[in-house]
Amino acid sequence: MADDGSGQDFHDAEDPRLAALDERLRQARAAEAARSGVKQDGGRGYAQGNRVIAALIGSLVGSALIGWLIDRWFGTTPWGLIVMLFLGIAVAFRQIIRIGNERPE
């Protein structure tokens, strides 16, 4: 860091040229997003997609595990697994519909 001898630290001061550049960059990004039709907030959609995938996989794997355990304990092979898989699919679709119907912030 070069010392100009004045004893003042200019790194904390607001530079009007940098502020103007930041403002122009923000406007250019907003204009480009409007021109290309791309929304700037992609985080919410990505998070919602992850929730849908987790609901689908979790419901199917969980219900398959419970169905398999029921078959092992009661000797009802393969009916416990089949019934629980259908219930897991129903639960997964119900959760996906609920996630899809959430209001945006």
UniProtKB/TrEMBL annotation:
<comment type="similarity">
    <text>Belongs to the bacterial AtpI family.</text>
</comment>
<feature type="transmembrane region" description="Helical">
    <location>
        <begin position="76"/>
        <end position="93"/>
    </location>
</feature>
<dbReference type="GO" id="GO:1902600">
    <property type="term" value="P:proton transmembrane transport"/>
</dbReference>
<dbReference type="Pfam" id="PF09527">
    <property type="entry name" value="ATPase_gene1"/>
</dbReference>
<keyword id="KW-0406">Ion transport</keyword>
<dbReference type="InterPro" id="IPR032820">
    <property type="entry name" value="ATPase_put"/>
</dbReference>
<dbReference type="GO" id="GO:0045259">
    <property type="term" value="C:proton-transporting ATP synthase complex"/>
</dbReference>
<keyword id="KW-0375">Hydrogen ion transport</keyword>
<feature type="transmembrane region" description="Helical">
    <location>
        <begin position="52"/>
        <end position="70"/>
    </location>
</feature>
<keyword id="KW-0813">Transport</keyword>
<protein>
    <recommendedName>
        <fullName>ATP synthase protein I</fullName>
    </recommendedName>
</protein>
<keyword id="KW-1133">Transmembrane helix</keyword>
<keyword id="KW-0472">Membrane</keyword>
<comment type="function">
    <text>A possible function for this protein is to guide the assembly of the membrane sector of the ATPase enzyme complex.</text>
</comment>
<dbReference type="InterPro" id="IPR016989">
    <property type="entry name" value="Atp1_alphaprobac"/>
</dbReference>
<keyword id="KW-0812">Transmembrane</keyword>
